Each structure stands twice: as structure tokens, then as C-alpha cells.
Amino acid sequence: MVQSLNTKSEYVDAATWFRGIPTYGKVLVGDKGFEFYSDNNPNDYVQIPWDEVTIVVADVYFGGKYIPRFKICTKKNGSFIFAARHVKPTLRAIRKHVPADNMRKALTIWQKIKRNFTRN
């Protein structure tokens, strides 16, 4: 059994971790970090302490009415892409621990195309 990083759980939701193939499980936002535990395999989990998180990037569509997924970028271990059943409350729980200037919206497809043409 995996030992949890957190001492207190603030928010739990069903989620999907995208890493080649989707892994279904639970997301846990707690006082010391962000955790994902797989439903099928107890050894398949991610624990990210809050001091390791650099930015959180969310894909935002239709003026914030639809947020399909978010990405947590870390200092040492790269980035992790998650989709939760209720993304907005999950991001609100993460926002309590990550500074507001480190919460970002992802670029839209038009912003990416424009950036490719305006760069030298």
C-alpha cells in the first residue's frame, strides 16, 4: 500500500492521467501536495509536493465554460497532464497552494499559429 504524502485531504475527484495511455483513478489535493492514484494498479501513482510545482496550465475553451484538462509542470520531473471529472473545483483547490501568477491558460490554436508567423 502506498503511503500518502498529505496529512489532510482537501479535495478528491475521479480523474484521468494522460501518459501515452490514459490511466483512470482518483486525484487528491491535500495540504502537502497533489496526488493521483490509479483504480486498477495500486503501484501506479504520482505524488507531487507543492514546492516542486512551477506552473499549472489549463486548456480553456468558450470563455472558461469548458476546461477539458490541465498540466502540472514540475522543477525536476517534467510535466503531467490530467483531466478531472470536475476540473474547476480541482483547479480552485490547487490555487490555494500554487501562487496565482503560476496558474496559466494554454495558448489557443490561433495564438500558436500567429506566434509561428511573427517570430524571426
Describe this protein's structure.
With 120 residues, this protein is an alpha+beta fold. It has one domain: Roll (PH-domain like). It has helices at 87-95, 109-118, and strands at residues 9-19, 21-30, 33-38, 45-49, 53-58, 70-74, 79-84, 103-105. An eight-stranded mixed beta sheet has the order 4-3-2-1-7-6-5-8. Strand 2 (21-30) and strand 3 (33-38) form a beta hairpin. The radius of gyration is 15 Å and the shape is globular. The mean pLDDT is 91.
Number of helices: 2
CATH superfamily: Pleckstrin-homology domain (PH domain)/Phosphotyrosine-binding domain (PTB)
- The fraction of residues in strands falls at 35-45%
Distance between the termini: 53 Å
Major β-sheet strand ordering: 4-3-2-1-7-6-5-8
Largest sheet: 8 strands, mixed
- Helical content stands at 10-25%
Structural class: alpha+beta
| Number of beta strands | 8
- How would the global form be characterised? globular
CATH fold label = PH-domain like
Question: Low-confidence segments, ≥5 residues, pLDDT <50?
Answer: none
Sketch the topology as an H/E string, one letter per element.
EEEEEEEHEH
Name of the CATH first level: Mainly Beta
Break the fold down into its secondary structure elements and pairings:
Elements (H helix, E strand, L loop, with lengths): L8 E11 L1 E10 L2 E6 L6 E5 L3 E6 L11 E5 L4 E6 L2 H9 L7 E3 L3 H10 L2
Parallel strand pairs: 5-8
Antiparallel strand pairs: 1-2, 1-7, 2-3, 3-4, 5-6, 6-7
